[in-house]
Amino acid sequence: MLKVNRNDFLIKPFLKRNNLKAFYQIISTIIPIISIWLIVHQIINYHFSLLIKGLLLIPIIFLLTLLSSRTFSLMHDCGHNSLFTKRKLNRFFGFSLGLVNGIPQKSWSIDHAFHHRNNGNWEIYKGPIDVLSLEDYNSLSKREKLLYKVSRHWVMLFPGGFYYLVLKPRLGLIIIIFNLAIDIMKEIYTKIKNKEISKLFTINSRIKAPFSDYGNNFSELCELIINNIVVVIGGILMCKWLGLIFFLSFYSIVLTLSAAILICVFFVQHNYKNTYAKNTKNWDIVDGAILGSSNLDIPNWLNWFLADISFHSIHHLSERIPNYNLKACHKANIHLLYQAKFLKLRDFPNCFKYIIWDNKNEKLISIS
Questions:
Q1: pTM
Q2: Nearest-angstrom CA–CA distance, 325 and 336
Q3: Which segments of 297-344 does DSSP mark as H helices, in order?
Q4: CA 30, CA 32: separation in Å to the nearest integer?
Q5: What gap in Å lies between CA 56 and CA 6, rounded to an integer?
Q6: Please, how many CA atoms are within 13 Å of residue 150, restricted to the half-sphere of its CB?
Q7: How distant is the alpha carbon of residue 199 from its chain centre?
Q8: How many CA atoms does the CB half-sphere of 46 hold within 13 Å?
Q9: DSSP 8-state class, residue 129
Q10: How far is C-alpha 10 from the geometric centre of its chain's CA atoms?
Q11: Sheet holding 354-358, edge to edge
């Protein structure tokens, strides 16, 4: 197999960022979202029967789900500092886009950068669902193996999606506050027990992040707090506008479906038959990008909602390429991607079988 080097690819012409294109992408995403919510308000307040309202809301759920996925994809670009020309613009719009889906952008982007630095090195990065090695899987009991198999089934995309966007950012902050309160109480109790009354109000406890990707430092914690405050306030206002039960249920469905799409896409772009799955000593970052990232052969309209993330080998080769240049860069280098994996929508279900890493033979294997 002929080795392809990064210098063989034509990358530089496609690194140029364009603020006009970036602003257009933001506007063409946010304005439809606002417009659709205004339509939703008209539907639920008009004198339609419940059946008619339900039938009208189904395609709206579909549209909002796809637009939510596009919002997340643009936030992803901001995290790579590739959407706008200036870092401050990427930070501002990345944070703002994160509010739409209720996710703190900075923490997510830092965790995602770790994925880019180690893609294809399955000894360090176990994918989006924490794939077990063959040795670890064989050490499980029958009950644990069944639980592992069920928890990685594609059906779990939906409860997983609900947790990922609806619960996790809120739960993360609650647990951080709870852990800090417990640590402070323990510290005060220890000082009272040791009769260190003069040091009683000198608190040394520090915040401990409950998740690897939320609240790891003061800056991330601040964004997590601000994100939650704005999201909760926005949710309260939307509840007053549309009704508590309707908004919470409707918005939760949209976020659940959107997250399910995003997790599914992320999964199939790295978990598939014959993907690049090396140990640290044999790993190469360029091979990880080309051989460990599938490219999706999907309809153009769906590509638009995913901000062209389907051209994934090129994206991993250089995450600084703006999404609006990915397709052109992919086409310019297509002759070098003959070893890369290309998947169609019908191939997606088969990818969910590959959830065990054979660390000795350095490959993903089927659960069966």
A1: 0.89
A2: 17
A3: 300-305, 312-317, 323-332
A4: 6
A5: 50
A6: 7
A7: 44
A8: 13
A9: T
A10: 28
A11: 132-133, 354-358, 363-366
- Distance between CA atoms of 90 and 22, rounded to whole angstroms? 10
Higher pLDDT, 191 or 202: 191
Tell me the one-letter amino acid at 257. Answer: L
Distances (CA, A) of 123 to 126, 129, 134, 267, 317: 7, 14, 12, 17, 20
Q: How far apart are CA 86 and CA 61, in angstroms?
A: 34
Question: Is pLDDT larger for residue 209 or for residue 74?
Answer: 74
Query: How many Cβ atoms from other residues are within 10 Å of residue 99's Cβ?
Result: 17
- Alpha carbon distance 110, 219 (integer Å): 12
CA distances for 39 relative to 25, 32, 59, 83, 237, angstroms: 22, 10, 12, 30, 17
Q: Tens of pLDDT along 193-245?
A: 776 766 655 655 555 555 545 666 677 888 888 999 999 999 999 999 999 99
Q: Which two tokens stand for residue 188?
A: 């005060």
What is the Cα–Cα distance from 279 to 290, expressed in whole angstroms?
17
